[in-house]
Amino acid sequence: MYQLPFDVPHTTYDQALGILHSALRFGICPMLESVEDMLAELGNPDLAFRSVQIAGTNGKTSTARFTAAILRGEGMRTALYTSPELVSYTERMEVGGSPVSEDAFARGIVAAREAGRRVNAKRTSAGERPYDITEFDLLTVAACVVFAEAGVDVAVLECGMGGRWDATSAVKSIRSVAITGIGLDHMRILGDTLEKIAGEKAAIIRCGRSCVLGVGTATPDTMEDVFLDQCSCEGVVPTLLRPEVLADAAGEMHPGIPRAHADLPHAMYRVVERPNRIGGSLVLDVRTTRASYAEVSALKPVYQAANIACAVQLAEDYLGRPLDAEKLFGSVVTCPTPGRFDVVRAEPVALVDACHNPQSVATFLTAVRGVAPVVEERPALLCAVLADKDVEGIVRLLAPEFPRAFCTQTSSPRALSAEELAKLFEAAGNTPVGTFGSVAEAVAALGDESFVACGSITTAGEVTGIFRPGVQNRGATVC
Q1: Residues 155, 156, 161, 166: what is their CA dihedral angle, to the nearest 10 degrees?
Q2: Per residue in 330-351, pLDDT tens?
Q3: How far apart are CA 358 and CA 340, in angstroms?
Q4: Quick one: residue 219, left, alpha or beta (phi over 0 = left, psi -120 to 50 = alpha)?
Q5: What is the pLDDT of residue 185?
Q6: Upper half-sphere CA count for residue 280 (Cβ side, 13 Å)
Q7: Could you count the other beta carbons within 10 Å of the beta carbon of residue 330?
Q8: What's phi and psi for 456, nearest 5 deg?
Q9: pLDDT tens-digit readout, 135-162
Q10: Cα–Cα distance, 105 to 149 (Å, whole number)
Q11: pLDDT tens per residue, range 276-298
């Protein structure tokens, strides 16, 4: 069993949040050395378990959750590391399907901070520049400590951003990886074309690791070539995930027809039953490189079919064997996906979705159309976005899809004001019925009206916090 190589003081959860908030948001220079050295200072907790890593612009959180649930169903003590949280920072680290305790979270953070302090003290003594240690560096190192102390068998790690310089890539125990798809997001950091962004995410494909390339990597050809070239350079034979019917991947793929690649292994899926209402059943058949699984079911929208199928192949690759079909069925149907087409109030319906860029909005809207084909019969839209996103692209997609729109703004310092957002909706042909200075005011004003809330992860988190008060809204992120 892993043990910390040095003592750390008891730290409360609120103190741990203070440590995180005082860290840098981003480093001056992207690097993995800081995280690698911190892990080494801690006695390499990342080697106390094996890991699966998942990258992608959209779909990676859901795929990570399904993968963790499937591995847990196979009898493995499984951890999950995702970001960002909806309500509480503890959501970022799960063991056995539940968020870790505030005490465990705080212990991990203070251990990571002490490791960083020791590493930088050594660098200063050697005349070297101290590392820029970011919030995500601290969280990732802390997660490794928490998971190691919990004695997990495998940790499913979701990349925070990109892949090449993502802190999760410093973990030395990664055995299997997946990339769900690519969209134009974080362009100032990752690049301004699909191909450039793909290059950053493709870096997680390394010699000795199995690899699944999700449906969102198949088109355009120039983007897919980035992944295939990386696989070739690393000597990795990827498994390509494809829908048997292209319509089953609507919103998940860029325009174009995927190439056949008959020389590469494929995993396939087919949607056999689509949900006919919000919260209805999705049923799909999945055929992997090892087995076929009929009628895998989930209370999810159609777009989750690609993520479920990706998770099935990824879990198989990690285990190196077929899955138990009955256990798979139970794992998938009970797997929660917070903030992803998530019903937070049943009657009248209040649904949240964390879509926050045009590609994820387009995917979200395919699900909306599937369960409510008539625009006039859909719930109202409650929207709040962040100013540094493609706001016009988001509004252009959402405005014609809902009969009534309400605009608000989240507590994030990056939030676009409700008034500015309302002007964009008006320009797009859907003049908002109401404009509110906070999410709480907007929800209160909507009262018993059915609504769908989306536009940013923070929007989904704040609405979720209102309807699920049992989850304390402490330390929620502003991203």
Answers
A1: 30
A2: 999 999 888 888 888 988 999 9
A3: 15
A4: beta
A5: 56
A6: 14
A7: 15
A8: -160, 160
A9: 999 999 999 999 999 999 999 999 987 7
A10: 11
A11: 887 788 999 999 999 999 999 99
Cβ(341)–Cβ(298) below 8 Å: no
Q: Which of 252, 111, 114, 131 is nearest to 180 (CA)?
A: 252
The per-residue pLDDT of the chain, averaged, comes to 92
Q: Which amino acid is at 78?
A: T
What pLDDT, on a 0 to 100 scale, did the predictor assign at position 163? 80
Residue that has been written with the tokens 């059943």 in this structure = 281
User: Three-state secondary structure along the chain?
Assistant: CCCCCCCCCCCCHHHHHHHHHHCECCCCCCCCHHHHHHHHHCCCHHHHCEEEEEECCCCHHHHHHHHHHHHHHCCCCEEEECCCCCCCHHHHEEECCEECCHHHHHHHHHHHHHHHHHHHHHHHHCCCCCCCCEHHHHHHHHHHHHHHHHCCCEEEEECCCCCCCCHHHHCCCEEEEEEEECCCCCHHHHCCCHHHHHHHHHCCCCCCCEEEEEEECCCCHHHHHHHHHHHHHHCCCCEEEEECCHHHHCCCCCCCCCCCCCCCCEEEEEEEECCCCCCCCEEEEEECCCCEEEEEEECCCCCHHHHHHHHHHHHHHHHCCCCCHHHHHHHHHCCCCCCCCEEEECCCCEEECCCCCHHHHHHHHHHHHHHCCCHHHCCEEEECCECCCCHHHHHHHHHHHCCCEEECCCCCCCECCHHHHHHHHHHCCCCCCEECCCHHHHHHHHCCCCEEEECCHHHHHHHHHHHCCCCCCCCCCCC
Tell me the per-residue pLDDT of 165-220, one tens digit each, with 9 for 90 and over.
Answer: 899 999 999 999 999 988 765 445 555 688 888 888 999 999 999 999 999 999 99
* pLDDT value of residue 472: 41
pLDDT band per the 50, 70, 90 thresholds, residue 356: confident
Dist. CA 120–CA 415, nearest whole Å: 34
Note if the pTM is more than 0.90.
no
Beta-carbon contacts of 245 under 8 Å, excluding residues fewer than 6 positions away, are: 270, 271
